[in-house]
Amino acid sequence: MEVVQPYAIRIVGDPVLRQRANEVTDIDGKLAVIVDGMTGALHEAHGLAVAAPQVGVLKRVFVYQLPEEEERRVIINPVISESEGEWIYDEGCLSVPGLSWEIVRPKSVHLTGLDLDGNEVSLEADELLARMFQHELDHLDGVLLLDRIPEDQRKEAKRAVRELQLQRADGLI
């Protein structure tokens, strides 16, 4: 069996993060290899979830693994069909490392999609899991965390992101 190297997480400023991902039409070995690379990136970054655009792949798929679970899960062509409530939470992102902001999102969602075997997945989620699903769907639509920050905080957030990008360019992080 081929060992797949983890993909690198793309960082804010990379144009691929602003593009809408394409529907997955074939669930095959190629997709399984992509998912393995995404899973490696997720584990290396010690994150909860990663969407394909975050590793430079414009496909509507994300992987996630909650701390209490042993297996990673894959959602292909995810759709949120219902949401309700409101929940404010300090939210971060692997593509905007080291920064987080309080973001308001629906408290609960109903997510549907497919797994890596092509089986339908239907999940009810609330709080952290619901937030994670919404965050990953944003990535699939080319929407970043920065787009969810209230207008009065956006200027300060953009300044923090520019500093992060300068540090990366200078090799400090």
Characterise this structure.
The protein is of the alpha+beta class and 173 residues long. Helix content is 29%, strand content 29%. It has a five-stranded antiparallel sheet with strand order 1-2-3-6-7, sandwiched between helices. It has a two-stranded antiparallel sheet with strand order 4-5. A hairpin with a 5-residue loop joins strand 6 and strand 7. The protein is globular and about 45 Å long. The mean pLDDT is 92.
Please render the helix and strand layout as text.
Blueprint: H1 29-45, E1 49-51, E2 61-64, E3 73-84, E4 87-93, E5 96-105, E6 108-114, E7 120-126, H2 127-140, H3 151-169
Antiparallel strand pairs: 1-2, 2-3, 3-6, 4-5, 6-7
What's the gist of this structure?
With 173 residues, the chain is of the alpha+beta class. The protein has helices spanning 29-45, 127-140, 151-169; strands at residues 49-51, 61-64, 73-84, 87-93, 96-105, 108-114, 120-126.
